[in-house]
């Protein structure tokens, strides 16, 4: 796995790194808020993937 656009690897350096996880919203009506959340973060083109209800 490479994160070369975020971290510069050094020869003999650590092979372990930590990444902060984003906040995840759960709940039946969470999709009703996702547009406002994306707008507040300055997002313009967003894709949301969900599973089928049921």
N-to-C series of helices and strands: H
Ends distance: 35 Å
Number of strands: 0
Structural class: mainly alpha
Rg measurement, Å = 17 Å
Organism: marine metagenome
Protein name: Alcohol dehydrogenase iron-type/glycerol dehydrogenase GldA domain-containing protein
Note the main attributes of this structure.
54 residues; mainly alpha
Structure description:
- The structure is a single chain.
- The chain contains 1 helix and no strands.
- The model has no long low-confidence stretch (mean pLDDT 79).
- Helices cover 19% and strands 0% of the residues.
- The chain has a domain at 23-54.
- The chain is mostly helical.
- It is elongated, with a radius of gyration of 17 Å.
- The longest helix is centred in the middle third of the chain and has 10 residues, at 31-40.
- This is Alcohol dehydrogenase iron-type/glycerol dehydrogenase GldA domain-containing protein.
- It comes from marine metagenome.
């Amino acid at each position: 796995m490479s994160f070369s656009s975020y971290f510069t690897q050094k020869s003999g350096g650590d092979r372990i790194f930590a990444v902060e996880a984003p906040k995840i919203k759960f709940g039946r009506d969470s999709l009703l808020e996702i547009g406002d959340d994306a707008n507040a973060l300055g997002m313009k083109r967003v894709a949301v993937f969900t599973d089928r209800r049921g």
